[in-house]
Amino acid sequence: MKAKKSTLKRGTPGAPKRPVRVKLVQTHEIRIIGGHWKRIKLKVADKPGLRPTPDRVRETLFNWLGQDMTGMRCVDAFAGTGALGFEAASRGASDVLLVEKDGTLVEQLQRVHTQLLSLDIPKPAVPQKLQLQRGEGVAALRQLAPGTQNVIFLDPPFDADIYEAALTAAARALAPGGFVYLEAPKAWTDEALAPLGLAVHRHLKAGAVHAHLLQAVDVVAAALEPTPGAE
After folding, report:
1. pLDDT at 78 over 70
2. Considering the chain, what percentage of its residues have pLDDT values greater than 70?
3. What does pTM read for this prediction?
């Protein structure tokens, strides 16, 4: 004989309780591509809007930058997973600042930093300073001394209306000959960048991502000038 189904509605006394579902924070991994932390995998949390720079794009970016970043000063202004900042540190950058405003992500970055420092591998030949700072990216860029940073990474949320402000602040902090790396949902042209004092040095489209390597206008213009005596 089959048991009768309960006719009581959920929420009334004696009614069966709905199973409690525990919401888990999903994680995935990113891989450091080059340098003394090469092939190390780092766990990162999945959060809405969090968009780690894909391996292919990161590999291309650091090919553009020349692989070896020994002695460079870098800022990852919208760090998120820290993929760009940790990659720069792995390749020898002497001073790396990672800025992130989300508290949960800052804690994750701290765990990753601790993991990397605990690895049993030879230490870099040049002393390194890697700092984590909780804060807003544009504000952090504005606090940097002018002309001090060799590479500035800008990878803000695609729906954030802060691109122009971030680029303006980055251009001010950029050292002579330095680079600004920009990820955006659209391509930025030289015409749009000129009022900010920047120009496109390299550009790559990968899926929905437009990756740009920018330099000061005068640096890009000088590189395009013909060499005296060349045909």
Report:
1. yes
2. 80
3. 0.83
Instruction: For 161-186, give one letter per residue: b (16+ CB within 10 A) or e.
Output: eebebbbbbbbbbbbeebbbbbbbee
Tell me the β-bridge partners of 56: none
Q: For residue 10, is it within any domain?
A: no
Count: domains in the chain = 1
What digits encode the pLDDT tens for the residues 171-184? 999 999 999 999 99
Residue 84: closest CA among 113, 105, 104, 62: 62
In a domain, 78, yes or no: yes
**Residue 170 and residue 196: Cα distance in Å, rounded?**
10
For 100, other C-beta atoms within 10 Å of its C-beta total: 26
- One-letter amino acid at 164 equals E
11-26: per-residue pLDDT in tens? 555 555 554 443 434 4
DSSP category for residue 227: P
CATH at 84: 3.40.50.150
Q: Are 197 and 169 in contact (CB under 8 A)?
A: no
Instruction: Give the domain extent around 142.
Output: 27-224
In a domain, 6, yes or no: no
Residue 230 lies in a domain: no
CB 169, CB 136: distance < 8 Å:
no
| Residue with tokens 């959920």, as numbered in its chain | 10
